[in-house]
């Protein structure tokens, strides 16, 4: 059973230990599993990721606990029964300590203000989330939660750790019940919050620095709260502040005016977009009429064959739909973009199976798609053969389909 130094003192950055065992790591035979008589490396568990660092020169990339034994995954094996010098990646560890205590504070505040339990917790390398048993939070409620959480932090409250027996455990007002019955570890925030937890935390709430809620999402009847603490919150503020200042400088406005200026730009954009759609439709209608008027006749049918460069697929579909409403018209339309896009259509009164024709030629551009007797559409990868495919379809129309 490995002695857990991280419980005795979460601020240990370096320590010496004796190597108990070394074996091949089955998940990755190029690495080794090392056990020590004592360790300050926190193993993955309880929602908190593992610590990283070095055992002598061997890099510790993963730490986990199994049957009361803590295993360190390393890239080279130390000698058994030797003393080794161990070094934690302290920036990683302290970051997790800040986030984890921040979670305790946030969950406690939400229970206090809304009587809502925390039913999920994830501490990732970039963000932290908790899921709370509540269907909705208003912006005002979110602000109140964030404000009280930061008041806890600013008060620099002490953190106490208890290992109570069953009798003492009953005296604690626990925010949640422990998942084990033996060796229960209780983390206390100065008589304000008591929570069973095996993770690492700073000694005082002030070391969390700041807590910032980034976003809320509804998740299966609960609310997922994404938040950041300490240095993570500072880094998040830094890039957002840089972006806002950059935008403000480009627009020659104050940073406080960015949102209102954006609202105006967005409103103007929507109006221009609406006008552009109307003009684009008018232009397409003009092009459609010109295509129909100029199309060659074959046995009373006008056959339109057209290839467009960089034409969007929705416009192609609009043109096909419009042409299908003309009399005795067949259109073989295509656009060259990242791939070839194709729409075949015909007038409603014509007795021609466009889907059948489409399937007979689409393979010439390594394409696929489908449709019905009136309209078929799809795409293919072989842009170089697009014109040949359309010509093949035109010839088939003349020789086989138009009676």
Q: Key terms for this structure?
A:
single chain, 403 residues, alpha+beta, Elongation Factor Tu (Ef-tu), domain 3, Threonyl-tRNA Synthetase, Chain A, domain 2, Diaminopimelate Epimerase, Chain A, domain 1, 3 domains, six-stranded mixed β-sheet, 9 helices, 21 strands
List the helices and strands and how they pair.
Layout: E1 3-4, H1 5-8, E2 14-24, E3 32-36, E4 38-39, E5 53-55, E6 58-66, E7 69-74, E8 83-88, H2 90-114, E9 118-123, E10 128-132, H3 139-154, E11 159-162, H4 166-169, E12 186-189, E13 193-196, E14 211-219, E15 222-229, H5 230-251, H6 258-294, E16 297-298, E17 301-309, H7 313-323, E18 329-336, E19 340-346, H8 354-361, E20 367-371, E21 375-380, H9 386-401
Parallel strand pairs: 1-4, 17-18
Antiparallel strand pairs: 2-3, 2-8, 3-7, 5-6, 5-8, 6-7, 9-10, 10-15, 11-12, 12-13, 14-15, 16-17, 18-19, 19-21, 20-21
Report what the structure shows.
- The chain has helices spanning 5-8, 90-114, 139-154, 166-169, 230-251, 258-294, 313-323, 354-361, 386-401, and strands at residues 3-4, 14-24, 32-36, 38-39, 53-55, 58-66, 69-74, 83-88, 118-123, 128-132, 159-162, 186-189, 193-196, 211-219, 222-229, 297-298, 301-309, 329-336, 340-346, 367-371, 375-380.
- With 403 residues, it is α+β, with helices and mostly antiparallel strands.
- The mean pLDDT is 92.
